[in-house]
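Hey, I was hoping to borrow your eyes for a little while. I've been puzzling over a protein and I'd love to understand its fold better. The fold is given in discrete form, as structure tokens running alongside the sequence. I'd be grateful if you could look everything over and explain what you see. No rush at all, and the record is pasted right below.
>
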Amino acid sequence: MHVQNLELFNQQTAEIFAVLWDNFPVPQVITYEKFNAALPDDYFDQLNSPEMKALNQLRSVVEGTFTFLNENGYIQYETDHQTHFRNARLTEKALAVLNKKPEALGGNETMGDKIISAVKDGTPGVIAGAVTNLLSLGVNLVTS
């Protein structure tokens, strides 16, 4: 796995959770544009350009992130595979994890609020730490 892909996954996961947590329980539309991965109008004219190859790689990471979060029971969504993910919503599992206030992290702020803070902070290390903590809590929730 490319380190860059993992960094993108962490960033995208944090942004997805932040939007869905902030707006729960209202289903959301999340566009590829949010991740700087929207197709330009002249996409087919420059299909083989290095820029479009890079864009396609980014889009595959976005789609992979949504798929991973869905397959592991964190989110539900529908997609048109072109412009957006619609009816995106947290699952009960994600809600349980995002509502947790881990003692190890001070115990006074929910994981959901930590994710929102990490996204606002924008530091990749802070975001990666928040996502790792969140997914670890999700695994512990299933195994306990």
Q: What stands out?
A: The first strand starts at residue 28 and ends at 31. The first helix runs from residue 3 to 23. The mean pLDDT is 90. The two ends are 29 Å apart (CA to CA).
